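Researcher: Please predict.
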Amino acid sequence: MPFVEQEEHFEDHVIDGKPVKVYKPRVEVTIKHLRTGREYMSDAEAQEDVDSPVTDTTQEDISRSVHVKIQSLPLGTKTNL
C-alpha cells in the first residue's frame, strides 16, 4: 500500500527579488520486498527488515517506487501563480 511522502501544495519563494509560487506535487511511495511481495509503510520499516539478524533480507531485495501526481494547472500568459 503506498504512503504519501509529500502532499500537493504551493510554496512562496523569492527568485531574482520577485515573489513566485512554486508548485509541489503529491508524491506517493510504494516500498516492496521483491522476493516475498511484502509492502512496507515507510523507509524505516524496510531498513529495519534489512538490518534484522532474524531475516535474510538484503538492500537488493527492496524496491522503492515513486509516483508523482501532477495536477492539471491552468497556465497561460495571464496566469499569476
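Model: Residues 3-69 form one domain.
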